[in-house]
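Worked example

This section walks through a single chain of length 256. The input is the sequence exactly as stored; nothing has been trimmed or padded.
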Amino acid sequence: MKTLIKKGVISYGNWKINAMCFIPGGPKKDALGIFTHGYTSHKGSILSWPDRLTDLGVSSIIFDLPGHFLGSFNEVDNFSKFKRDSHLLFAKAWDLFKDYLKFEKQPKCILGGHSLGALLALKAMELEEFKHLEKYAICVGLGLPPEKGVHLFETGFFEKTMNLRSQMVSPELSPDNILPWIKQEKRGLRVKDKNIFLLVGEDDAIVSIDEAKGLVELLERNNNQVILKIIKKLPHHQPDTAAFYIKNILKEENIL
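Given that input, the structure is written out below as tokens.
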């Protein structure tokens, strides 16, 4: 049977966020994935993730981040609000679709994303709305850069790329604002006692293997159970290629 796609809009303050829920056409498991994308991108960049998970009978939600124009032309008029509230959209996505999905029992929940989206997923793991659920985080293209030094995107090598990319987001989400904040948030992560999977490609030009290992070490300090999957081909600009590995993780680790 064909996958059913249910469209919705997450309303939070003055944010109107486009979201899509993918529902398997055949037998459904009591499990739900909620995913979002990386900086300057859009939910279409991870379209393959929910598509693959429907093969396992898993429903999934993908949503755009506010102020990302490839997703929808909405603005972020206050960076402080984005910093404070953007991870809450995982819970709002759950609220939007949970009644429609009609799980027979409390579902296992897989929160995840690519790059910035992965960071927000880790922050969402501690939200009250998910406290009662069995949870797993899947983070693609996320690492911990050295404490000193600039972000790779801030170097001259990426100047042309970031000039283009910076025009794909609200001015409040400019690289000058968001990149230092991302670095700070990684080092201040408070997630603890969770099951977390990190996926990074050997060919990822943005996140190195050492940076991924650094994030593992940081997360393990808070008693998280972390598994790092190093993939031969998983370039940072192609997060859709992670779908195959995400599906395998859920099967091999007996999560489903």
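What to look for: The chain is about 30% helix and 20% strand.
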